[in-house]
Amino acid sequence: MTRDWLSEARVLDAADPMKGFRGRFHLLKEGIYMDGNSLGLASVDALESLERATEEWRRRGIGGWLDADPDWFSYGERIGAEMAPIVGAHPDEVVMVGSTTSNLHSLVATFYEPKGERRKILADELTFPTDLYALESQVSIKGGDPSRDLLLARSADGRTLDEGDIIDMMDGTVALVMLPGVLYRSGQLLDMRRLTKAAHERGIPIGFDIAHSVGSVPHRLHDDDVDFAFWCTYKHLNGGPGSPAALFVNRRHFGRAPGLAGWYGYVKERQFDMSITFEHAHSAGAWQMGTPGVLSAASLDGALKLFKEAGIDAVRKKSLALTGFLIEMVDERLAHLGYEVGSPRDPERRGGHVAVEHDEGWRICCALKKRGIIPDFRPPRVVRLAPVALYNTFEEVERTVTALAEIVEGRKYEAFSTKRDAVS
Questions:
Q1: Is 234 a catalytic site residue?
Q2: 121/5 Cα distance (integer angstroms)
Q3: What phi and psi values does residue 373 have, to the nearest 5 degrees?
Q4: How far apart are CA 69 and CA 208, in angstroms?
Q5: Active-site residue identified among 120, 185, 235, 318
Q6: Which of 209, 224, 301, 376 is catalytic?
């Protein structure tokens, strides 16, 4: 007997304890947004906090640094403290600062200390490319040769990584391990606790890029004893295009001097003494460099309010339900049309998006967008779909799968060029 997926979806939506959050987002008109893992939708709360910040600037001018509500001077530390519960950290271990790549440079400049035979950085071939670009440059800056000193763990299937293989590469030549929390194509969630324990047993510091997991997966950065981590805020956290990134530094390292110093990392109470001798803050705030972009950060006040109300564990529960529902439908309704699930089926090993693979992936994405359904594409054949817990519904997942079937059954993708857009 064929399952009535649409009826099931509507039952699940009616019973959804988080359905009230959907009304607090600006949804697409007559469309379905499945790209929250690239850029989250605007919430009413985020835009209200942005408007408050622009009004403070209008009314107070420079006085906003101390007199705005909230004040601008402590933006990085305050927003960092609000993110701390989402990533499992103490408030002083997180700071809002910079961009994902600039934070990677800053943290690697701090924790990568090549000495003797320990000169190599261990990363992986499936990580987001900006991480490798930055790691190559950091190796070069410290006198190494990226072709020799940047090790890449390989994937057996082109989709996932094996933690055991990575651990086997943690030998006496490795000075730093730098890995993703969730792989950006397949959505595989790495076992960060296991990897951290293994690295520390071998005397190696370890950091994680959690840009593709933060806001959809609860992390336990402090309890897992991770040395450092960094992430963006515009994907699952819904901070808006260009919203600042953030980083975590374990309290054990607060005595370290940041590898890239700047005046905003000075001891807060004496920052305006303008001393020519750098005295860094004993918190993650030490890894700030320049003045924060207040207007680009302001939306985070409202965006993070939603997570405080919902709770990251509840977000994770619904996210897994949505992605699990999607995977079931791909298996039953799409497999005979050449679609494959490229994400882990084990919920404990999956982040907040699903890789739906097809040889015509790019043109299928184009056909979806023509219908008002927004996915994204990652080469060579991945249609990424991210049903977001705060605003997507099970019925939207069902409608997306129905569209995927119709596009291939009717060969609708043939109306589109194989040439990819600059932003896909």
A1: yes
A2: 47
A3: -105, 120
A4: 33
A5: 235
A6: 209
Q: What is the pLDDT of residues 357-387, one digit of tens each?
A: 999 999 999 999 999 999 999 999 999 999 9
pLDDT in tens, 24-66: 999 998 899 999 999 999 999 999 999 999 999 999 999 999 9
The per-residue pLDDT for range 202-219, each reduced to its tens digit, is 999 999 999 999 999 999
> Of the listed 78, 363, 384, 412, which one is catalytic?
384
pLDDT classification of 421: cutoffs 50, 70, 90: confident
> Of 315, 379, 383, 380, which is closest to residue 352 (Cα–Cα)?
315
Q: How far apart are CA 194 and CA 192, in angstroms?
A: 6
Pairing outcome for strands 246-249 and 94-96: antiparallel
- Mapped onto helix, strand or coil, the DSSP state of residue 25 is strand
Contact 394, 4 (CB under 8 A): no
Of 33, 75, 228, 234, the catalytic one is 234
The answer to whether residues 188 and 160 touch, using CB atoms and an 8 Å cutoff, is: yes
- 128 catalytic, yes or no? yes
Confirm whether pTM is higher than 0.85. yes
Catalytic-role residue among 13, 128, 256, 371:
128
Residue 156: how many other CB atoms lie within 10 Å:
9
Q: Extract the tokens encoding 413.
A: 């993708």
For the chain, which residues make up each domain, given as ranges?
A: 5-30+311-415, 50-309
The total of other beta-carbon atoms located within 10 Å of residue 197's CB is 15
Q: Do domains 5-30+311-415 and 50-309 have the same CATH topology?
A: no
Q: Which CATH fold topology does 50-309 show? A: Aspartate Aminotransferase; domain 2 (3.40.640)
Q: Which CATH class is domain 5-30+311-415?
A: alpha beta
How far lies 278's CA from each of 261, 262, 285, 288, 289, in Å? 8, 8, 14, 13, 12
Strands 206-209 and 174-180, sheet pairing: parallel
Confirm whether 235 is a catalytic residue: yes
Q: Say if residues 210 and 230 touch (Cβ distance below 8 Å).
A: yes
